[in-house]
Amino acid sequence: MNSHRLVKLLASASIGALVLSGCFTGERPTLMPEITVPAVSDTAIQEVIAILNSTPTSNFTIAYEVVTKFGDLHTAATLAFDPSLGTSITIAEVRYIYLANGTTLTCSTITSDCAPGIDESRVSDRQLVSTIFKKATTERMQQDARVAVGSAVASDEVIVDNNASCSAIPVVDGNGATQSKTYCAFTDLGVVASMDTADLTITALSFTATATADQFSA
Questions:
Q1: How do beta strands 73-82 and 60-68 pair?
Q2: Is the CATH number 3.40.630 carried by domain 3-216?
Q3: C-alpha–C-alpha distance, residues 134 and 51, integer Å
Q4: How many other C-beta atoms are found inside a 10 Å radius of the C-beta of residue 112?
């Protein structure tokens, strides 16, 4: 998509978002959709959820490897955050853009085409959604907290040179055996650092304390 066409699309989508949502002046940009967090009594789970519910204040880019265990699909993913621009999540060749003014786009990094809104079906074959590094993981943890067969175990790790808080939640799998689902969140960044569940493994591979404007276009 050429720069003139993308600017027109962004402008059109931004106007629509303002009409529907009112004026955004003065509001703090959020990292993807705001999360409403039901109370969780387990403090080890609660701590990681609280981190995922936070909004960072500095630029960063994190590269991940995501493994969909059913089918052994390996997917490269990247999350970029800039307080003035918003959040960009690239999963394989699909880029989801959550601009700071509330506008959302789904783009192809191959064709450079973008469409308003978030089309989750583009990555559903990988058992993923665009919010997997934040909101969707919070929802997974809330569900695991409801079915846990014991207290979660908290731990601290350093992942790609950043501190992370982790929670291992014991649950019963389909075979009746107790297994732990492990979730780690970057303490200062408010996003997933790693995850290991029955269906997905997510591993942060690299961290950069920058985000560039081209990550917010196709």
A1: antiparallel
A2: no
A3: 9
A4: 14
Q: Could you give the dihedral angle defined by the CA atoms of residues 181, 183, 89 and 136, in that order, rounded to the nearest 10 degrees? A: 60
* Dist CA 5 CA 76 (whole Å): 28
pLDDT digits (tens, 9 = 90+) for 173-204: 877 889 999 999 999 999 999 999 999 999 99
What's the pLDDT tens digit per position in 7-63?
344 444 443 433 333 333 344 444 555 555 456 789 999 999 999 999 999 999 999
Cβ contacts of residue 59 below 8 Å, gap of 6+?
81, 82, 83, 209, 210, 211
Residue type, 35: I
Amino acid type, 123: V
What are the structural domain ranges in the chain?
A: 3-216
CA angle (56 as vertex; 55, 62 as ends), nearest 5:
115
Answer yes or no: are the C-beta atoms of 35 and 53 closer than 8 Å.
yes
Task: State the pLDDT at residue 12.
Answer: 43
pLDDT of residue 9: 41
